Amino acid sequence: MTDSNFIKVYTGNFAVVKRIAIELNALDINPIIKDQSESAILGGFGGTLAPDFQEVFVHEDELERATEIINKVTKELKS
Fold first, then answer.
1. End-to-end CA distance of the chain, in Å?
2. I want to staple 45 with a disulfide (CB 3.0 to 4.6 A). Which of 1, 40, 41, 61 is the partner?
3. Which residue ranges form the domains of the chain, and what is each CATH number?
4. What is the pTM of this model?
5. Each residue of 24-73: pLDDT tens digit?
């Protein structure tokens, strides 16, 4: 992602990324999800070594609120 207005806030598997995206959308934060394996397949390079590897980006103006949500979700998943 070359747009400097967006910041990567999380990297993980599909299930956790989906949960984070739902929580962020509920607060009117629209994350950008980058799926490395899908990008490789579309580019003709086949799959990647980590097929569930996804990245979540948010606009820099929403960073603080997004970080709070990500911390909440990951803490819930650990307990």
1. 32
2. 40
3. 6-78 (3.30.70)
4. 0.77
5. 999 999 999 998 765 555 555 555 555 568 999 999 999 999 999 999 99
